[in-house]
Amino acid sequence: MKEQFDFSVVDKILALHEKKQQAIIAILQEIQEEYHYLPREIFPYLAEELGMSEARIFSVATFYENFSLAPKGKYVIKICDGTACHVRKSVPILERLRQELGLSEEKKTTDDLMFTVETVSCLGACGLAPVLTVNDVVYSAMTPDKASELLKTLKEEIANA
Amino acid sequence: MTEKQYVTIDGIPVEINGEKNLLELINKTGVKMPTFCYHSELSVYGACRMCMVEDERGGLSAACSTPPRAGMKIQTNTERLRRYRKNILELLLANHCRDCTTCQNNTKCKLQDLAMRFNIEGVRFPNTAKSNAEEDSSSVCISRDAGKCILCGDCVRMCNEIQNVGAIDFAYRGSNMVISTAFGKPLAESPCVGCGQCVAVCPTGAIVVKNNISPVWKAISDPDVRTSVQIAPAVRVALGRELGVKDGEDVMGKIVAALHRMGFDEIYDTSLGADLTVLEESAEFMERLSSGENLPLITSCCPGWIQYCEKKHPELLPNISTCRSPMQMMASILKDQAKEKGEKTFHVAVMPCTAKKFEAARDEFKVDGAPNVDVVITTQELVTMIKEAGLMFDALEPEAVDMPFGTISGAGVIFGVTGGVTEAVLRHVIANKSRADIMMVANCGQRGDEGIKEFDITAGESKLRLVVVSGLSNAEKVLQRIKNGEKIDFVEVMACPGGCVNGGGQPFAVRQDKEERSKGLYKSDRLLSIRRAEQNPILKTLYDDIIRGREHELLHVHYGKHNQ
Amino acid sequence: MLKNRQELIAFRENAKKAYDLQEKKIIVCAGTGCVAGGSLKIYDRLRALAAEKNIPVSVELEVDPHGESVALNKSGCHGFCEMGPLLRIDPQGWLYTKVKVEDCEEILEKTIIGGEHIERLACKKDGVSYAKQDDIPFYKQQTRVVLEHCGKIDAESIRAYMAIGGYTAFEKALFDMTQDDIVSEITKSNLRGRGGGGFPTGRKWEQVKRQKELIKYVVCNGDEGDPGAFMDRSIMEGDPHRMLEGMMIAGVACGASEGYIYVRAEYPLAVERMRTAIRQAEELGLLGDHILGTDFSFRMHISRGAGAFVCGEGSALTASIEGKRGFPRVKPPRTTEHGLFDKPTVLNNVETYANVAEIINRGADWYLGLGTETSSGTKAFALTGNIANTGLIEVPMGTTLRKIIFDIGGGMRGDGEFKAVQIGGPSGACLTKEHLDLPLDFDNLKKVGAMIGSGGLVVMDSHTCMVEVARFFMNFTQNESCGKCVPCREGTKRMLGILERIVAGEGQDGDIELLLELADTISATALCGLGKSAPSPVVSTIRNFREEYEAHIYEKRCPAGACQKLKQIVIDPELCKGCSKCARQCPVEAISGKIKEPFTIDLSKCIRCGSCITACAFKAIKEV
């Protein structure tokens, strides 16, 4: 048997938004901030509590790129592929990271749930292109080699944790 | 005096008369605009972009979402518009399964129709349609094939806006967008109630009625099996143009003839089951009124509604009438008789309804593990069978249903339209039994195609509040009022807007045709000599010989207890 | 809590006094760019050092000002991200660039205590060193209105904003002007929407003001989704109160009592700064019920986007605030009549609102004096791509591309030659050499089939392949298509498919015509503005660089040498020693030749794997 999901966190978030249907995006965002993804268990629960269909919540969750239905890694690396970063060669950085972590366009998270590598359309830090973020911290003027270095540091962090 | 206002459509001035949009106005000029996503009963979605019109300055707008303004000058068929429409169709076809010949909706498909109308000769893009391996056939009522979906969203709006079921919605976005249940779960595991209204609006073969024709043919061909069939009231007025029949025309006699020709051994009219329902339900209503318990009484004929109540409001199940639906009353008597005789039988029900397929499969209606109704086929499937048998429907001479269950009343016939059950019960319970009183009952307020109709009647010293509702969103509104403590005594619920005549299993029809169907049933009622259920002479025999003492076993059911 | 106008004025006076007492100021840029470069560490270091050295530092404007102190502030983006982290020293107006933590001590000692300029940290261009920020060519040629305070004041302090005259326009609008006065002033100024369409703001406000509904909304579009644009982010991060004030004035003018700011989720700092600003305004009673003792009540909410470009479209944005999928809806009805929650709604973007307070303060005539006849005021642009000075700039409408790229932007980065500039992001078009002297305003751009969009300028040089650029934008729009209407959902997918074939060397005769045909259908029939403009990059690159498309399709050649799959590998006969090493490495036996004579490559066999290039010891093999 699966363990019972603890809804206390979700309850708090729901209460904060007075269980309003219109707040569904904010509610999902806050749940995701808590779990780093949207656990499947919350969908029927939210449907019940908010009085909207589960299909509708699924519909909203899959429309917006920032929601993830699969667990993400401890470190979420987002490579900007906005115009400015693209013309300053962000793709090789992405390729390097994917290669070193054994990831691909389809497989975005490592099996040990340590790293997630994804692209983002523009971080608005075009002046520092190409950029990437690790858990929302911006790293500017990246190169494939700098990205490898960064990975090394992060892996050390994990080892020392 | 207000001056008349006009829009010039293709050079012809057309008067604006309260039309909500240009599309409605254009239809008045005898031009059939191409659309996929416009249905007057649903909200305007404006996504297929087929109904674009061009103004005198070359500006384009979608007719479905543009309100008519006095002085507008529009063209509906210009060189540019034709080009764009062709391109849109080509783009849709590039992403669409093109195995038309083996599609259940072949010749009934809007995409196919428009592709022919616009003379699409080829598709310049690789075909990227989803493979039909992804077809969801988990539901016993309907099946979905994403490879044939053009994402017009008609089903989504129907399921959510009109039916408040919310089984399906859009998921993902852009070119990855699909119509899906939550997490793509099989439809059978979703809140779907099987009403089939999505089928009724789907322009292609992406959502279709689950086809159960084969077992019927097989049973007919089996010499050791005695086949019987019952035909629901709403079927007779909706066979559709495909068989050369106008909507609303009662062709029951021809249907009977066709079924005889196909080889059915016994043919009956579900209206008799409805007559039984009237008697049982009236008695139940009187009983509840006197005990004051479980009011309002809510009708139980509609299987889509039953599932809705079970899934969304189980706390209201005690209010549901314990009467089986007319189909099930009919079937349990037939099966009981067959058992008596020791015959091996196969019972088919022809229904306007997709949800009946689910009802037939319910455990509550099985005796020794075997269902009372072996197979439900919809009106659409009946049409297919008639065609398959090669019968020239026009040329068939009408025939009568078989005895001993061959007499019906008008009360049973009008079960097929919203308000019909209520009217039939009222006819039964009014004190005076004159024809004039029946006319009076007709004007109580239960007739008409509004979604929610309510009215009071005086019964003895008390005033009773009756509500007639069709469409599940409307039902939901009434349920909320009940939950809020409003005093209502009787509620008739039909899941499909307008009642069974517009069931999910009926052939496609536009609004005007649907109205003709209701009128047709009322006309058939008027033409019958027996208008009231209890006057049906067969009922007395039935009660005397079979039912008395076994009412519960044969005619009643308690939902919510068996299907845990 | 400020109860009335007098208290507001007194509060402002007090803040101004405190501000004036801070004679010396160190302003650390804390925009996204400089933060990424470590500016917060610099700020912390300066603060710690000052404490060690007993320098009286005030990080906030004091409520009860006494004695002089050195201000240490975090500001928003200066725009010159290229040179960050940036540090401004006032009153001298010096700008220190590429500052490091190690520089802090020297800055405090020499500059703050000693009043001395540190030459090493100054900005240098073409051998000239510029001490003052305003003298640097990048800044000198700009006219800053909406970005006026960005980089000059503490972005997290309402007192700082008040000290330089903040909320005077709101005060004026609330007490001295009628709703009609405000709307007519904005109308007269000819302020046009900075989000792309250029719709007159005054007319929009007028439409909403006219509505009889009791509930109306003011919504700010901060969903700056164009890749390569970050003006709005910088305003929200650098001068949040200015935008807030603009929205509040809109609220007064139109009779709305609630406002929503929709910010992209990718801008966490902007969200934080806006939240801080709202909280501060609420604490002072500038937001809330019965503001400053009047009948005007106004509440502000923030909605964070969740990653959908289409939500930059008005009706999709309001749908998203309502908790729905970001589907644009058909129009009419207009947002001004049936907008957010079906109520009349003023919807403008960040930059538009940021203009409002100054127009009310200085009057419409002042604003009309800036810019061109049909497009008044200034426009902020994000300058990126292959340009020397990337960053954020603001110039009067009507400034030429030449001035922006060569004077302010400092020309090309690297050895490439100017080829084109993409204006307006994925909905925009490219401008080429022939447009360099075109004064940029709404109407001129429209004439050449382009649009200002939100103001992203991506500069491309001769090494950029325009077909690949078109593919890049189409890939973006296709990814971001909401999927609602058929032409955009299916059409962009097919256009992308064709472009992908072309850059892969699999283009066919007729592809260009098919692209144009699809583009025409999409532009004419798509449901929303973003769909209609989705084919623009393709159409404009075909119009201006058709020969590049033809080279890809018919000659299987990329003139810019950028498309990987079209690269040709050649052996330079001058350098080749005929050692045969390359031939032995070649997996498909495409290389042949006689030993000690130059080898050759059979291009029909070559799979462009590049192993010969790495194998050659004489660097004789190249990709061209």
Radius of gyration of chain A: 18 Å
How much of the polypeptide of chain B forms β-strand, as a percent range? 5-15%
Largest sheet of chain B: 5 strands, mixed
| Broad CATH class of the largest domain in chain B | Alpha Beta
Q: What is the radius of gyration of chain B?
A: 25 Å
Give the chain pair forming the largest contact, with residue counts: A-C, 39 and 56 residues
Distance between the termini of chain A: 31 Å
| Helical fraction of chain A | 40-55%
Share of helical residues of chain B = 25-40%
Mean pLDDT of chain A: 90
The averaged pLDDT of chain B comes out at 92
Any chance you could write out the topology, listing elements then pairs?
The complex is a heterotrimer of chains A (about 160), B (about 575) and C (about 625).
Chain A: H1 8-16, H2 24-35, H3 42-50, H4 54-63, E1 75-80, H5 83-87, H6 91-101, E2 115-120, E3 132-134, E4 137-139, H7 144-160
Parallel strand pairs in A: 1-2
Antiparallel strand pairs in A: 1-3, 3-4
Chain B: E1 6-9, E2 12-15, H1 22-28, E3 52-55, E4 60-62, E5 73-75, H2 79-94, H3 110-117, E6 142-144, H4 154-162, E7 169-171, E8 178-180, H5 197-201, E9 207-209, H6 213-221, E10 226-231, H7 252-262, E11 266-269, H8 270-291, E12 297-298, H9 303-312, H10 326-341, E13 345-351, H11 355-361, E14 366-367, E15 370-371, E16 375-378, H12 379-388, H13 410-413, H14 420-429, H15 435-442, E17 452-459, E18 462-470, H16 472-483, E19 490-494, H17 511-527, H18 537-547, H19 551-555
Helix pairs in contact in B: 8-10, 8-14
Chain C: H1 5-21, E1 24-29, H2 32-36, H3 39-52, E2 57-58, E3 70-75, E4 87-90, E5 94-96, H4 104-113, E6 123-125, E7 128-130, H5 137-140, H6 158-163, H7 168-175, H8 179-189, H9 201-210, E8 217-222, H10 231-238, H11 240-254, E9 258-263, H12 268-284, E10 299-304, H13 314-321, E11 345-349, H14 350-362, H15 364-368, E12 378-385, E13 391-396, H16 401-408, E14 418-423, E15 429-432, H17 442-447, E16 456-461, H18 466-480, H19 486-503, H20 511-525, H21 529-533, H22 536-554, E17 569-571, H23 581-585, E18 591-592, E19 600-601, H24 611-615, E20 621-623
Parallel strand pairs in C: 1-3, 2-3, 8-9, 8-11, 9-10, 12-16
Antiparallel strand pairs in C: 1-4, 4-5, 6-7, 12-13, 14-15, 14-16, 17-20, 18-19
Helix pairs in contact in C: 7-11, 7-14, 8-9, 8-11, 10-11, 10-12, 11-14, 18-19, 18-22, 19-20, 20-22
